[in-house]
Specification:
By secondary structure, the chain is an alpha+beta fold. The protein is built from 14 helices and 20 strands. It is globular and about 70 Å long.
């Protein structure tokens, strides 16, 4: 009789009979994949090519019932379990080695209530799929910047995007959710129902259960916004960054400007002599008419000579996909991240120094200005704690060849260390790599102890550990 050997949740090996696995497969409306089955390799392949793990079983769920059965199966048999939504997380937490991967990527329903300006969204939905449905009704909510990102992981970690300065973090616009906890129970959470769990999933990652439905607040946006790119040669980087700092200190919340320092891709509006050279890119986004948008970005344009400019009225859905070509799946990615209140002159000089010595053609330094509405939310209101953050920096190492791993990772770590003295000491949990478990407490700040209490209540066995893990504490007498 065939047997299946799986990774146990206690570090042991768990042996299941063919009958047990067959019974589980038969209980699913979706599909259970084993290694060698058609679709297995596709299901286990995620955005970051550094992650190459092989689950023993992949449950491709078609709805909440399948998720419940998969959670029950993992808990009863004490096997390692991971949860895949969009598969975009840098740490690769969607895929486990030798355990059960619960794959939510087939759960794609999006329902928009135009009158209430709300959206009901399943966890397999990507930003592009959400935006398409919401924008067909002239609506949107703060999400990320890469349209292939899954809404589930982005939301659970906090979530920010082009609308954050005006409308807050993604979790600030989450009205409710359905969560299947470690005991296999489906719980609806909101401000009035299971409010403690609702608090925890707004920034606490996948530590407390599997979300099978999200409800978001929406806002009138688009269909066109004013956006585009201002590009400068690297020799003017310090001047441009100082002007950026000055403008963003007093910018209206309708204006969002993010910085990308990288080697210039061969964009059609850039002269050929710039291609492959270090540049400073200001990505501008304005919620308003083109004339007002142009006036708002004028001080930035005048900071230094431009080598390229491509701005104007743009469909919101198109702008949400603008950075997709730089973030395609299949490359090897390694990130390091810091939060900042401000960039001092010394910090700017460090950024200029390291951005002038990028290790690979696709490595970049990203600076996101998110100050605004999110700063007005009390730190204890959601699990996402760091409401004093004005800027997020992501040191985004990216390359295709495994041979570049050592050089790229070393550069990212060195730059990260060089910027540490100027940072707040906190970090955005969705930007944390798999080797940063020691930063989990920093990611949650003063909310961490409350999150541990929540973990004790809803997942004391740490079934959901494939994440930036909040470890339960087994209390004496329990």
């Amino acid at each position: 009789m065939q047997q299946f050997e799986l990774a146990g949740s206690s570090g042991n090996r768990v042996v299941l009979s063919d009958a047990q696995v067959t019974e589980f497969a038969g209980s699913l409306r979706g599909q259970l994949l084993r290694e060698g089955d058609p679709g297995y390799d596709e299901a286990r392949t995620i955005w970051n090519a550094m992650i190459d793990k092989r689950p023993a079983l992949i449950a491709r769920c078609s709805g909440a019932g399948d998720v419940t059965r998969a959670v029950d199966f993992a808990r009863r048999n004490r096997i390692v379990v991971s949860i895949r939504g969009g598969g975009h997380n840098i740490a690769g937490s969607a895929v486990c080695q030798g355990g059960l991967m619960i794959d939510l990527s087939l759960m794609k329903a999006v329902q928009i209530d135009r009158q209430k300006r709300t959206a009901q969204v399943e966890p397999g939905v990507t930003l592009a799929e959400f935006d398409e449905k919401a924008q067909s009704n002239g609506l949107a909510t703060p999400l990320g910047i890469n349209s292939t990102t899954g809404v589930a992981g982005l939301t659970l970690g906090g979530g920010f995007g082009w609308l954050t300065r005006k409308y807050g973090m993604t979790v600030d616009n989450l009205l409710g959710a359905d969560v299947i906890t470690a005991d296999g129970q489906l719980r609806h959470v909101s401000a009035n129902e299971n409010p403690d769990l609702f608090w925890g999933i707004r920034g606490g990652g996948g530590n407390f259960g599997v979300v099978t439905r999200f409800e978001y607040q929406l806002y009138p946006v688009g269909p066109e916004i004013f956006s585009g790119l201002l590009v400068y040669s690297h020799e003017h980087a310090e001047t441009v960054l100082k002007r950026y700092r000055e403008v963003t200190r007093r910018a209206p919340v309708d204006l969002t400007v993010w910085v990308v320092l990288r080697k210039a891709p061969p964009l059609p509006f850039l002269p050929e002599h710039v291609h492959g050279k270090e540049v400073v890119v200001l990505a501008v986004f304005y919620l308003g008419d083109a004339d007002s948008g142009q006036k708002a970005i004028q001080p930035l344009e005048e900071s230094a000579p431009l080598v390229g400019k491509h701005v104007g009225p743009t469909p919101y859905t198109a702008w949400q996909k603008a950075f997709d070509p730089l973030l395609t799946p299949g490359a090897r990615n390694y990130w390091k991240s810091h939060d900042f209140k401000e960039f001092s002159d010394d910090a700017i000089r460090k950024i200029v120094q390291y951005s002038g010595n990028l290790p690979t053609p696709h490595t970049e330094i990203f600076l996101g200005h998110i100050a605004g509405k999110m700063n007005s939310v009390p730190p204890e209101a959601t699990a996402y704690h760091h409401r004093n953050v004005n800027y997020v920096m992501n040191v985004h190492g990216r390359w295709d060849d495994r041979a570049d791993d050592e050089r790229g990772i070393r550069w990212a770590r060195e730059f990260f260390q060089a910027m540490t003295p100027y940072s707040l000491g906190s970090v955005y949990v969705n930007f944390m790599t798999a080797d940063e478990q020691d930063r989990v407490e920093a990611a949650y700040g003063q909310n961490y102890d409350r999150l541990v209490e929540l973990k004790n209540k809803y997942d004391s066995s740490n079934l959901f550990c494939m994440n930036q893990n909040i470890k339960p504490v087994i209390l004496e007498g329990r």
